[in-house]
Write a structure and sequence with these properties.
mainly alpha; 10 helices; 277 residues
């Protein structure tokens, strides 16, 4: 009888913890995506219109599609994260404490290492997703967002969602890390993901061709991937696309055109304001 009660309590506690993980994921996703969507697509749409990469807004049904599949993704992410936390609590991962156990230099290095590992993982799994049989069955769901909004950041088929979150156990079981390092990495990853699907270009003129900055991706880079499909597979950096020659040949030119469009729009708005006075 006592064992039965303990088992029931343990099951209830695990269910509650899983729900908490899913709630935290949902809260973080909705907080960031909604904030960016409201700012660029609702409140400031006219002011920033000239920064819009594709000069048209997606239909309501496409936004609903993005949100719907994002909710499925959160459920998949939540299940995997719960399992990783369970593994960590049972001493099966490389999580450590206190935060300065290996020094703060290593602490920050571990975050950089996570980002670099994820960038490589993402590029090659993304290329795999574009293999025709997998694309049709799985990745096409994400590519229904031809003109993506921030809500497309998590708009994955459940199988792709499982592949996407696969980076977490890979990190947890291979890299010594403090739990806060994974939190920082996860927030950074989400923000970059949202930026790639924002639909607006915010980087300055010359960024995509600059000797140093060209190695970091832009919103234009990933927007072209959604529109043209067979190019621009990278996430954070433009390293693998350059090495593997998978950048679209007109990427830098397209980036400059969007920036020029933005600058001309600003000049037009300023001229209109001066005339109104």
């Amino acid at each position: 009888m006592v064992l039965a009660h303990k088992s029931m309590f343990s099951s209830a506690a695990n269910t509650f913890y899983s729900l908490k993980v899913i709630f935290d994921l949902s809260y973080r996703y909705l907080l960031f995506t909604s904030a960016f969507y409201l700012f660029f697509y609702v409140w400031k749409d006219k002011k920033y219109w000239h920064s819009k990469i594709q000069q048209w807004y997606p239909k309501k049904k496409h936004i609903i599609h993005e949100i719907k599949y994002s909710l499925f993704t959160i459920l998949v992410f939540g299940a995997v994260i719960t399992l990783v936390i369970w593994a960590a609590n049972n001493g099966l991962t490389w999580v450590y404490s206190p935060i300065n156990k290996y020094g703060y230099v290593y602490y920050f290095f571990s975050i950089v290492l996570m980002v670099v590992l994820h960038d490589t993982y993402f590029y090659w799994t993304h290329r795999l997703m574009h293999w025709k049989p997998i694309f049709k069955a799985v990745h096409k769901t994400h590519h229904l967002s031809v003109n993506p909004t921030p809500f497309a950041a998590y708009a994955f088929h459940p199988v792709e969602a499982l592949v996407e979150i696969g980076i977490l156990p890979l990190i947890a079981f291979t890299i010594p890390h403090h739990v806060s390092a994974i939190v920082f990495f996860s927030v950074y990853s989400l923000l970059i993901n949202i930026g790639g699907h924002l639909g607006y270009e915010l980087f300055p003129k010359g960024f995509a061709s600059h000797k140093l900055f060209k190695w970091h991706n832009t919103s234009t880079h990933h927007n072209m991937h959604h529109r043209l499909v067979k190019c621009n597979y990278g996430l954070y950096f433009n390293f693998w696309d350059r090495v593997m020659h998978t950048n679209h040949p007109h990427y830098e030119e397209s980036f400059n055109e969007v920036v020029e469009q933005r600058e001309q729009g600003k000049l037009t708005m300023e001229a209109d304001k001066s005339h109104s006075w």
